[in-house]
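Per reviewer request, we include the raw input and output of the structure prediction for the construct analysed in the revised manuscript.
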Amino acid sequence: MFAQNCWYVAGWLTEFEEGRPHARMVAGERVVLFRTGGGLVALEDRCAHRLAPLSLGRCEGDTLRCMYHGLRFSADGRCVEIPGQEKIPDNARVKSYPVVERHSWAWIWIGEAQADPALIPDAIGLDHPDWALKCGGHLDYAANYQLINDNLLDFSHLSYVHANSFGAGPEWATSRPVVEILARGVRVSRWMPRSASSLRMREARGLSGEPADTFSSYDFLVPGILLLGSESYPAGTAERYPDRRPDLEPLSATFSCQAVTPVTDRTSRYFFSWGPRAGPGAEEMALKLLAIADQAFAEDKVMIEAQQLVIDATDRPLVVPTTADKAVIIFQRMMARMMKGHTMAAKAVA
């Protein structure tokens, strides 16, 4: 089951080149995306005639032609041409999906409620002038998307899964962050005084060998969007500002945008970008950070896919939560309410 009435990331805008259709599976729904003069549009990926995939079709101006029997569809899903037939039946149409191009991503609305662009999370695009973010592309997981969400909501795993990539110390596992409930997600914040990290990681962030206090805070928003800011300050800053991000110029700052999109019940796609503030040397730093991220997220992928195999092989698997799971539990309950609300609405319609 998937959350409805929310915006999922269908892909990076650069993936959708003009002149050809692009097949995607988002939250169990087969979708075809193509560009028109008005921008990117998305239709159900099946022809209304014999159910051939429209993603094997041909773009013709602002329309898409099925290359099985030639039916042609407009951007709103209506069939506008049937070769050899003048009258077009009213039901010769396919579902259309709202699409918004924002923050370097294509956002698609899955659900029956009116799409509200104001609900698109406030990510940072690759073209933002204040940041030198680099696109990490995507990773395909053989795992349910909520396992990836859980991973991103509990950073205590950094001490173990990412000891080699991020060089995270034991404090990530032994300390607990501050968790705040947001309207459509949670905010997770924490100080890491004199935090340990690998020399590779410190060089990528432009830090010297001196110890530094790191403040990280991220919003994790439905259905699985992570927006993470992290700043390093001189040692001792955490003691002066124990409960908040200080109003000081940091030694270094980075930002990461990440999105988890379910494909099917057992497959998911994970998008990510990362980089420092714009400025001298920022491009080189961004490439170094991205190389570390590639290694770290591959480490996550190995663990989460192995976790999915164990879950599938276990009869009635029991999860024993720990105090590190506070954000996980809050977010899981939030998603469960969204899915329950969709189910109840569907039953009422039926």
